[in-house]
Amino acid sequence: MSFFDSLISTKSAPVAGLDISASSVKLVELTQGRPGSFSLEHCAIEPLERGWITDGNIEKFDEVVEAVRRVVRKSGTKAKRVSMALPASVVITKKIVLPAGLGERELEVYVESEANQYIPFSLDEVSLDFCVIGPSQASAGDVDVMIAAARKEKVEDCRGLAEAAGLEPIVIDVETNASRIAVNRLIERLPGRGRDSLVALFEIGATLASMQVLRNDELIYERDQVFGGAQLTQMLVRQYGFTFEEAEAKKRSGELPEDYASAVLQPFVETLAIEVERALKFFFTSTPHNRVDAIFLAGGTASLPGLAETIAQHASVQCQVVNPFDGMNISRSVNKGKMAREAASYLTACGLALRGLAS
């Protein structure tokens, strides 16, 4: 779903996925050939300094705008139209059941009526959107409809940021929706095309790890936990006396002390594996399910050496780091080695690029 779409249909113009998080800006441009066939044309990551974006709020607007401009230049894209997303924490979503066969205007009336029950502020203060998911499994003859609402200023901040960087935002989605779009391609590559498989997706960011459990394109559980890559940075600061900024720079460059692997990395990986195991236990105790069939890891922290293997040992479930470009053609303009190392960071941006192609 999107909070707004361009009023002018220019499908021939390229659309890039632009993912702005607390720690970096990611850009992905895809093209589509035959149905289900995609090519990665451009991608790039630009780091953000700590404090520029906090809890989804843009604290340093001009600095973030410049970072967006840099990532566009670095990627080599010519796209000016972008698909973006808001953090799930600033969006209220609710699945409702409505009668099938309603027209667009009738749906809007029903959605606005239902939204009044779930949104704790006036509808005049929010951007509201909805999409029909499909026939309801719980109520024959009805349809499931997902509604989403965000404060207008959040949408306008996102839109204004893109426009200040010389870009045209044509879609604003929700980050978790975008990541699901991208990961569903990967689930289909599991045995049996992933049909009926329970897949736990962990996106490990700087300070927050989001868990989504998916089955047959449906989200059946989600939970956020406070742990992420910033904790590794803090361990580097304590162990070696670096400043936070120095520790972040050394993480990116790989210029770390000789005992880093044993003194810092291994304990951190073990801690992360325990947190993932704990999150899975919450899922098992709060739902009828007692297993997952696979664990997918995404985010900049996901690619840490030994993390997937350690999680697999703790959870007794196969675990893999996602590459959202798996099965795609890769343009010669893309540095394949660098892309492969950073692939897990691009999940949401890739989902936004796919979302943009469908707009």
TrEMBL record:
<dbReference type="InterPro" id="IPR043129">
    <property type="entry name" value="ATPase_NBD"/>
</dbReference>
<dbReference type="Pfam" id="PF11104">
    <property type="entry name" value="PilM_2"/>
</dbReference>
<protein>
    <submittedName>
        <fullName>Pilus assembly protein PilM</fullName>
    </submittedName>
</protein>
<dbReference type="InterPro" id="IPR005883">
    <property type="entry name" value="PilM"/>
</dbReference>
<dbReference type="InterPro" id="IPR050696">
    <property type="entry name" value="FtsA/MreB"/>
</dbReference>
